[in-house]
Amino acid sequence: MDERSILNFIKFIPFYYIFSFIMAYIGYCLYFNVEFKKDIIIILFFLIITLSIITMYISKITKIKFQNFKLNLLNNENNKLENMKNILDELPIMIIYKDLNDFILTVNKEALTQLSISLENIINKPAKEIFPISFQKQYNDDLEIIKTKKGKFNLIEKLIINNKVLMVKTSRVPIFDEYNNVKNIIIFMIDITKKIKLENEEIKKNKLLYQQSKMASLGQIIGDITHQWRQTLSILSTASTGIKLKKEMGILEDSELISTMDLINKSTQNLSNTIDDFRNFLNPSNSKTKKFNIKQTVEQTLKILNVQFLSKNIRIIKNIDDIEIVSLEDQLILVFINILNNAIDALANLDSSIKKLILINCYKKNNYLIIEIQDNANGIDESIIDEIFELYFSTKTLTLDSGIGLYITMMLITNILNGEIYAKNEKFTYEETEYYGAKFTIMLQEKALSL
């Protein structure tokens, strides 16, 4: 019921009751043959006039009240809209409101600031004109929203406006009319340009540190290979010289010749195998995600470091299950090398009379691949054990790779291999003797396993 109907109804009420009373009085007089009394008719007539005046007054007052009420509603609505606009202007995100014809209806202050544009240069302008580079993708997203009546969230977009490049995280939300049809689209954008720049710088830094760590490992491995080759070449030189001398003196026996040839053959094969192991470590195919056997990967790593184990009299105890995983083998090998090199350095400080042990366990538990590497070098100082994975933290003398080996190890495990790594000191028993040392535990997630 509208305002006019209500006012007419108010005017009609007194006349309705008076008319009803008059008809009832006439009916009474006719039915009982009672004479009409003029006084009553006159009274009713004046009553009609009085009520008409009162009704007109009430109607006028009611009309004024209605007008005031409507004005208050309008003011309240305007205040709400103004308050809403003020709230939107204070939000630290860009907000753009546009119609289905792709014309921009309004924006908040943050959008004007971030886009470096004035209000008159964006209001009632087509989005194609404001964002010509990214328009097509945005328009396709809008068409999908109109069709599905569902918003699209957390889209990463590149905006170019007035020679300014912005990377934004965008959410586009439909606004519906009373018939549940999409009538407008509101766009929320967060500037993530600095965040992406920092992330890219972090990636570049980590790549550089990774290469630095790998080069440091390569330098150490090449040094070990050089030492092994010199030892082997010395053996070959001594054996060949001895055979030649005995031949010249006529005292060379066939059995000695055969055994010396076997020694030379075995030594050359060892040299060849050393090169093969090193070449596999550098193989570019290992830089790609592939399926491989963790037992074979550990064995390959141990071959690369074998010279160090032999020269420092370190014994390796392995308990490795036959498990296939899908991951980056070269990254995992570098992780193993970094951890084992730390163990080798720590064990080198032990007295020569003490057994030097490294335990390697690999097994599957709760859909995780668990890799444990533990030594008996008396552990890491508990006051610093929580800091060993931090960049440039080191207890060693300053060298090229000081403080980056374990940091790169942590980065490779968490960011590249999607796993976790922990370090703690722990006791263990081997051959009925109790030892104590650092234990590194690597956990690779279920999706890394080849189930």
Automatic annotation (TrEMBL):
Pfam families: HATPase_c, PAS. The keyword ATP-binding applies. GO terms for biological process: phosphorelay signal transduction system; regulation of DNA-templated transcription. Residues 149-204 form the PAC domain. Residues 64-91 form a coiled coil. The keyword Protein transport does not apply. Signal peptide: none annotated. Keywords: ATP-binding, Coiled coil, Kinase, Membrane, Nucleotide-binding, Phosphoprotein, Transferase, Transmembrane, Transmembrane helix, Two-component regulatory system. Residues 224-448 form the Histidine kinase domain. One of its GO terms (molecular function) is ATP binding. The chain crosses the membrane at residues 12-34, 40-58. This is PAS sensor-containing signal transduction histidine kinase.
